[in-house]
């Protein structure tokens, strides 16, 4: 009981930045998927980022591939329909037999803005940061994502950006875009 | 389909703003205000209560708020008690649910109340709550909260149609000016001339502070009654004549065009068709100006002007008293603030008072008969519309 209270207190500051988790402890369980598990435990409190292992999501392959530098999604072979975000059932025919496909690494900015004030917990230190909608090259997908690489006021519509998977700081991976400087 | 007619027979709001008060205290305050505003209402008349609340779990660390609100307001619902959650449209959702229950004969007299406590010691905490309205592990994880999303709508509208910052400011100036006639508004007695609006800091480019509605604490409540009970409470009911709603996506990747709000076209078309009127019959509209660009796109999607002409509609004063129709006379979300669960109900209170002609003349629509209320929620991925008619026969 006491140790629970203690660990709760230790974890409390973590409420703010997911990029600065508490002192790491040994993972209580061995990794359920084959990939090497971060030595850091998952967050005590949920934050914006998903829990990514196959103990937590049926989309763990998405994150495994992200860790390998590949952005992927699901495709319904029956409907020839590319999904975003990746899914476990097709919204059109409802089959659960979906295929994984890699997505193009390049895209063009369709629209963008930036967060100059009013960032959520865990993102305050990143302000200002650019957010955009990006049309991926050659597929009918327009993804939202952070855009790094240059200041928001130097970006322009139509600009080429590249997918960049990244470690959010506690072993979990997410994706963002990077513009050429 | 013939259903029992239902009307809003009274309502009231608390002061909206940064309030030194809790969620429960707001519920008590609006309960007291409601019983003062509708003197014939007895607590035992109210057989059902619908509680619009978007995010009390995050903002107030409180779940199961329907019985909490009932206790705070001194009500003991015996037919239907429930919370309605539809983010920014949670309030209208409570009214629609009460309407459906009364129309179906499951309730005779119901209260729809909306309560939201949004201002917290940590603004980042409040922004986190707002971020969860989006598809959290994708859009939220990308930092795509409401301001950058609606800023991208504005950017595309400027690119595709030449809409200007000055036209955005025209919306903000109008709604803040109307709010100056509304002592319940967050920005009551605050002046925002266009030159000042154009100098305010940028929040999410191209949107400035004056283009964005605020974090607001507030509550609002209305009483709805079935046709045989209406005259017990008022001589100037606001009859619900039509509703419409549409949702076609959630994740931002599936939004399609940012400037063509198909969902609003469908929802408003359906609501107007059910009321058997056209957009030209409206005397006033309370539309969801969470951002200035929203009101501009809404003019277009509602069919008040051609595609791309919403900026000119604003700049030409067509939404003013004496224009085509009065848009957001209460002060809108920009002027009143936007306590998520209370907003849609505050709009209905304005419609009721406009029909009763009890609002200050500077914002009174001339002899209004028809009103439309619109709420969007999230990233404009749900549109909810209601059409009201003044008094007369059921």
Short description:
The complex is a heterodimer of chains A (181) and B (394). With 181 residues, chain A is mainly beta.
SSE order of chain B, one letter for each helix or strand: EHEHHEHEHHHHEEEEHEHHEHHEE
Instruction: Report, as a whole number of angstroms, the end-to-end distance of chain B.
Output: 16 Å
What is the arithmetic mean of pLDDT of chain B?
A: 97
Strand content of chain A: 25-35%
Strand count, sense and barrel status of the largest sheet of chain B are: 10 strands, mixed
* Rg over alpha carbons of chain B: 19 Å
Please, how many helices of chain A? 2
**N-to-C SSE string of chain A, H for helix and E for strand:** HHEEEEEEEE
Strand content of chain B: 15-25%
User: How would a textbook summarize the main sheet of chain A?
Assistant: 5 strands, mixed, barrel
Distance between the termini of chain A: 53 Å
Structural class category of chain A? mainly beta
Share of helix of chain B, binned: 25-40%
Spatial order of the strands forming the largest sheet of chain A = 4-5-6-8-7
Q: Which architecture of the largest domain in chain A would the CATH scheme give at its second level?
A: Beta Barrel
Helix content of chain A: under 10%
Number of domains of chain A: 2
Question: What does this entry look like structurally?
Answer:
The complex is a heterodimer of chains A (181) and B (394). By secondary structure, chain A is mainly β. Chain A contains 2 helices and 8 strands. Chain A is globular. Chain B has 394 residues and is α/β, with parallel strands linked by helices. Chain B has 13 helices and 12 strands. In chain B, β5 and β6 form a beta hairpin. Chain B is globular and about 55 Å long. The chains are: A mainly beta (181), B alpha/beta (394). Chains A and B meet through β4, β5 and β6 of A and α5, α6 and β5 of B.
């Amino acid at each position: 009981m006491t140790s629970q209270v203690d660990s709760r207190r230790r974890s409390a500051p973590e409420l703010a930045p997911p990029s600065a988790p508490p002192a790491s402890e040994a993972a209580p369980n061995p990794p359920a998927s084959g990939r090497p598990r971060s030595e850091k435990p998952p967050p005590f409190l949920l934050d914006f980022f998903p829990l990514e292992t196959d103990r937590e999501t049926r989309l763990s392959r998405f994150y495994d591939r992200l860790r390998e530098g590949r952005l992927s999604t699901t495709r319904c072979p029956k409907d020839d329909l590319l999904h975003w975000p990746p899914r476990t059932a097709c919204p059109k025919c409802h089959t659960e037999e979906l295929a994984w496909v890699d997505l193009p690494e390049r895209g063009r900015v369709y629209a963008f803005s930036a967060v100059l004030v009013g960032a959520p917990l865990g993102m305050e230190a990143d302000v200002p940061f650019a957010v955009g909608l990006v049309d991926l090259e050659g597929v009918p997908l327009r993804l939202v994502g952070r855009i790094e690489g240059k200041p928001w006021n130097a970006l322009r519509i139509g600009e080429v950006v590249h997918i960049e998977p990244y470690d959010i700081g506690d072993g979990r991976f997410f994706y963002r875009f990077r513009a050429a400087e | 389909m013939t259903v029992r007619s239902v009307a809003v027979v009274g309502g009231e709001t608390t002061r909206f703003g940064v309030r030194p008060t809790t969620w429960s205290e707001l519920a008590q305050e609006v309960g007291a205000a409601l019983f003062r505003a509708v003197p014939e209402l007895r607590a035992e008349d109210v057989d059902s209560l619908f509680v619009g609340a978007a995010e009390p779990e995050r903002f107030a660390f409180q779940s199961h708020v329907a019985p909490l609100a009932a206790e705070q307001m001194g009500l003991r619902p015996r037919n239907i008690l429930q919370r309605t959650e539809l983010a920014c449209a949670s309030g209208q959702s409570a009214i629609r649910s009460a309407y459906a229950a009364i129309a179906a004969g499951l309730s005779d007299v119901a209260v729809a109340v909306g309560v939201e406590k949004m201002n917290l010691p940590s603004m980042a905490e409040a922004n986190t709550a707002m971020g969860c309205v989006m598809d959290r592990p994708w859009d939220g994880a990308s930092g795509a909260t409401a301001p950058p999303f609606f800023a991208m709508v504005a950017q595309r509208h400027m690119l595709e149609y030449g809409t200007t910052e000055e036209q955005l400011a025209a919306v903000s100036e109008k709604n803040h000016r109307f709010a100056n006639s509304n002592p319940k508004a967050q920005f009551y007695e605050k002046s925002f001339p266009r030159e000042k609006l154009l100098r305010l800091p940028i929040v999410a480019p191209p949107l400035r502070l004056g283009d964005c509605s605020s974090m607001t604490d507030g509550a609002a409540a209305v009483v709805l009654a079935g046709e045989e009970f209406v005259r017990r409470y008022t001589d100037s009911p606001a009859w619900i004549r039509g509703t419409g709603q549409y949702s076609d996506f959630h994740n931002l990747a599936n939004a399609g065009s940012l400037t063509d709000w198909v969902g609003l076209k469908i929802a408003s078309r359906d609501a107007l068709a059910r009321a058997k009127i056209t957009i030209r019959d409206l005397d006033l509209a309370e539309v969801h100006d969470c951002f200035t660009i929203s009101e501009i796109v809404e003019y277009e999607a509602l069919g008040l002007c051609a595609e791309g002409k919403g900026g000119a509609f604003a700049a030409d004063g067509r939404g003013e008293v004496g224009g085509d129709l009065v848009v957001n006379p209460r002060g809108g979300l920009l002027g009143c603030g936007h306590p998520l669960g209370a907003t849609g109900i505050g709009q209905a209170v304005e419609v009721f008072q406009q029909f009763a002609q009890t609002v200050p003349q500077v914002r009174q629509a001339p002899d209004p008969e028809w009103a439309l209320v619109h709420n969007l929620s999230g990233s404009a991925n749900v549109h909810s519309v209601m059409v009201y008619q003044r008094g007369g026969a059921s």
